[in-house]
Write a structure and sequence with these properties.
The chain is mainly α. The protein is built from eight helices and no strands.
Length: 150
């Protein structure tokens, strides 16, 4: 997401327009687009202030906000449920279709994580090919290979 222009720049553009300069001229003079200068002048006329509006969606106002309790109940009851299964349960129970990644973000915001704890035993599986494991390239990511080298 982009950032808002500084209040100082907004004041200079609005000041130029209120002194009789054109909006396009203000845009050229202060290095912003003509449409930005028009929006700044309209904001000054409409709201009386040049403070930028808040960006982004306010927390708790998403599509999944009303169903977060339902998702928590399911995750608490079945801790190893997959995101696809959660999405299917949401459709079956409430008729709401969302992408599994949206469910993941909602659960992360509610402090539910899917990471293994340090007390979880290590996996018994290991690389099956000694030559690939020794090279550090085919079975590992570049970051892993770099950490072995340096």
């Amino acid at each position: 997401m982009g950032r808002a222009y500084s209040l100082d720049l907004r004041e200079r553009v609005a000041g130029h327009v209120t002194e009789g300069g054109s909006r396009r001229e203000a845009g050229r003079r202060f290095g912003v687009s003509a449409s930005t200068a028009v929006r700044i002048a309209a904001l000054q006329a409409e709201r009386g202030t040049l403070e930028p509006r808040q960006q982004g969606r306010p927390p708790g106002k998403g599509k999944l906000a009303p169903y977060l309790g339902f998702l928590r109940e399911i995750v608490d009851a079945v801790p190893d449920i997959t995101l696809k299964e959660l999405a299917a349960a949401l459709v079956a129970e409430h008729g709401v279709r969302v992408h599994p990644s949206s469910i993941c973000r909602a659960l992360q915001a509610a402090d539910y994580t899917y990471k293994k704890s340090r007390s979880t035993p290590r996996s018994a599986s290991a690389p099956t090919s000694a030559s690939r494991a020794a090279s550090g390239w085919a079975g590992a990511s570049r970051a892993c290979a770099r950490s072995r080298i340096g």
